[in-house]
Amino acid sequence: MLDLEEIGKRLRNASPGASVRLYAEADRVRRAQVGDAVHLRGLVELSNHCRRRCAYCGVNVARAIQRYRMTEEEALAAARQAKEFGYGSLVLQAGEDPALTQTWISDLVSGIKDQTGLAVTLSLGEREPEEFEAWRRAGADRYLLRFETSDPDLFRRIHPPLPGGEERSRFDLLRILRELGYETGSGVMVGIPGQTWDSLARDIQLFHELDLDMIGIGPYLRHPDTDLAHCPELFPPAKAEEQAGGDEETVCRVVALARLVQPKANIPATTALALINTESGRAHGLTRGANVVMPNLTPVRYRRLYEIYPAKASSIETAEEINETIAVQLAALGRHVGQGRGDSPNMRQRHAERV
Ligand code: 5AD
Question: From the CA of 189, how far away is ligand 1's center (Å)?
Answer without folding.
Answer: 7
